[in-house]
Amino acid sequence: MFYLFGASGHGLVIQDILEHLGQKIDRYIDDNPNGEVHGGLSVQLSKDLDISNEDKMIISIGVNKNRKKVAARYDAVYATAVHPKSIVAPSVQIGVGSVVMAGAILNAHTTVGRHAIINTSACIDHECRIGDFVHVAPNATLCGGVQIGEGSYIGAASVIIQGVKVGNWCTIGAGAVVLDDVQDGAVVVGNPARQLRIDPIES
């Protein structure tokens, strides 16, 4: 069986990728579904799910902390989904459960962790390190050698210059231009980016 966990708009995009790749999807799973059908597929309540370690799943939830919580709940075989109209260098490594949307570019020797989202037309240059549960939003640009810690959100059309290190569970605002390292839990916005606050990091 192949499941998408999260009957969401994000799930529809992943469904589209998998259908482009010829992958049959059996159903959506959701904790609180809005209906019995989503994207033409049936939706099953998560409490009724009896998953085996042979079943495949992608967590189709855009919120990073929620994706991490679901990943801890299920001993599934987590698949990856890479859109055929993305550009991924042969040396790129992509962790289980991660998705790469249409138009995204991942250049040489970049590493993407588990359950990450590389969204539409994001550009990630050479030798970047993207942590687990990260979301790189549409049209964001990471220059060479950037490091992104676990759970961080990189906002749409933001730019992170070469060699910058972004900590764990940070938020980079849409359109921000990040010139300096960002500490764990920081929320930064603007051009050049400035720190608004430090959010607590959930254990």
Give a written overview of the molecule.
It is globular and about 45 Å long. The chain has 203 residues and is mostly beta strands. 40% of the residues are buried. It has helices at residues 9-20, 64-73, and strands at residues 2-5, 27-30, 37-38, 41-45, 56-59, 77-78, 81-82, 87-88, 93-94, 99-100, 105-106, 111-112, 117-118, 123-124, 129-130, 135-136, 141-142, 147-148, 153-154, 159-160, 165-166, 171-172, 177-178, 186-189, 194-198. The chain has two domains: 2-78, Rossmann fold (3-Layer(aba) Sandwich), CATH 3.40.50; 81-193, 3 Solenoid (UDP N-Acetylglucosamine Acyltransferase, domain 1), CATH 2.160.10.
CATH architecture descriptor name of the largest domain: 3 Solenoid
Unreliable spans: none
Summarize the main sheet: 8 strands, mixed
Our count of helices gives 2
Gyration radius, in Å = 17 Å
Summarize the helices and strands and which ones pair or pack:
Blueprint: E1 2-5, H1 9-20, E2 27-30, E3 37-38, E4 41-45, E5 56-59, H2 64-73, E6 77-78, E7 81-82, E8 87-88, E9 93-94, E10 99-100, E11 105-106, E12 111-112, E13 117-118, E14 123-124, E15 129-130, E16 135-136, E17 141-142, E18 147-148, E19 153-154, E20 159-160, E21 165-166, E22 171-172, E23 177-178, E24 186-189, E25 194-198
Parallel strand pairs: 1-2, 1-5, 2-4, 5-6, 7-10, 8-11, 9-12, 10-13, 11-14, 12-15, 13-16, 14-17, 15-18, 16-19, 17-20, 18-21, 19-22, 20-23, 22-24
Antiparallel strand pairs: 3-4, 24-25
